[in-house]
Amino acid sequence: MDALKNRILVDGQVFPGNILKVDSFLNHQIDVALLQEIAKEFYLLYGKDGVNKVLTIEASGIGIGCAVAGAFGCPLVFAKKSKTKNIAGAVFTSKVASFTHGNVSDIIVSQDFLKKEDRVLIIDDFLAKGNALVGLIELVSQAQAHLVGCGIVIEKGFQGGGDQLRAKGIRVESLAIVESMDASKGNVAFRS
Amino acid sequence: MDALKNRILVDGQVFPGNILKVDSFLNHQIDVALLQEIAKEFYLLYGKDGVNKVLTIEASGIGIGCAVAGAFGCPLVFAKKSKTKNIAGAVFTSKVASFTHGNVSDIIVSQDFLKKEDRVLIIDDFLAKGNALVGLIELVSQAQAHLVGCGIVIEKGFQGGGDQLRAKGIRVESLAIVESMDASKGNVAFRS
Questions:
Q1: What are phi and psi of A132, to 5 degrees?
Q2: Which tens digits make up the pLDDT trace of B15-31?
Q3: B192 CB contacts (<8 Å, ≥6 apart)?
Q4: Is the pLDDT confidence value at B86 over 70?
Q5: Which A positions 23-82 lie with beta carbon below 8 A of chain B?
Q6: Alpha helix stretches (DSSP H) within B47-180
Q7: Taking Cα atoms as reference points, which of A54, A29, A52 lies closest to residue A121?
Q8: What is the pLDDT of residue A89?
């Protein structure tokens, strides 16, 4: 998606430790108009696949997840990272190691909101080693729902998580795949 | 907002401890179509006030914040609850005690995304004692930005936070104000 790649080149910042900071438009300040364009792109990719539920994970997946659910005319469900007073009853649960936060979280979805008959599109803002996706796929599997595929805004291709999932036969569509980054020069190169 | 109040009456669940669970449509599973209607309502209330930035707090404010920012054609900024690897540089910061999670969080916004010239609408899904709003208002104040007002989806009027802020001259608009709840009967009564 050219508009997204251009935005990454103009406004993204590369930091040591393979960190690509896009918080001026994607995950701290959000350019909602760009989100709408991203959602349309996912609809072009998955619009004929009978998706009836979008699944993401808090916090930074929620904005893009809402936009995509709007494009598909279906609800968004977001997995929560810790058990709060407000989740009662039976849940599906798995674990996710966070690259950004440097910790491991339990993630949960109420069994009320993922059902056997659901056709699920998993959406997230970033894909690096794939930990969040693996955790979300596990939730879909526990629900015995059908996983249509995954839609990622920015994949760090050089960290391998996306290709590992593709090798297992899971459909993973990323709108921008970063092949390499250089913090010393601030360069970002995309997979063609 | 009648559609919202009706939805609360039909799908909301009341639990002991003044908990109103609306996670089938607002903060776990999200009815994106309802979110769009809610956003339109806030635009009716604040559309002539020159809002150029919507501010909310992760996680459950992000969905409604995105919808409202879309209605206003401006960016959303969401305050983060912990310092991650991906926030570098100067930040505004305050503290928020969470009714739902039973803890106190530092909340932060990068100084890049709240500026003196901004006219800010604060959006959140819930208002009870007002802790989150007070923390967000403090961030706006640190930025020396102009606070246009606050837009809340569901206010628990009996917990007093909204009225305390109104008494200080802050404009707080809530689309549904719950005046009382009864967990034993499952009743919810709205302020008229």
A1: -65, -45
A2: 998 899 999 999 999 99
A3: none
A4: no
A5: 23-24, 27-33, 35-36, 58-60, 62-63, 65-67, 69-70, 73-78, 80, 82
A6: 61-72, 131-142, 161-167
A7: A54
A8: 76
User: If we measure between CA atoms, which residue out of B78, B79, B114, B77 comes closest to residue B94?
Assistant: B79
Structure-token pair, residue A22: 């896009």
B134-155 b/e (C-beta count within 10 Å ≥ 16 → b): bbbbbbbeebebbbbbbbbbbb
- Is the overall model pTM greater than 0.90, yes or no? yes
Rg of chain B over all Cα atoms, to the nearest angstrom: 16
Nearest to B72 by CA among B46, B94, B100: B46
Q: How far is A29 from chain B (nearest CA, A)?
A: 4
pLDDT digits (tens, 9 = 90+) for A119-152: 999 999 999 999 999 999 999 999 999 999 999 9
> pLDDT digit string (tens) for B114-143?
999 999 999 999 999 999 999 999 999 999
Query: Quick one: average pLDDT of B80-84?
Result: 73
| Contact criterion met (CB < 8 Å) for A30 and B113 | no
Cross-chain residue pair A59–B63, CB shorter than 8 Å: no
- In this complex, the residue of A36, A70, A86 whose CB is nearest that of residue B21 is A86
Q: ipTM for the complex? A: 0.94
State the residue for tokens 């009716």.
Answer: B44
- B119-127 and B146-156 strand pairing: parallel
Measured between alpha carbons, how far is A23 from A34 in angstroms, rounded to an integer? 13
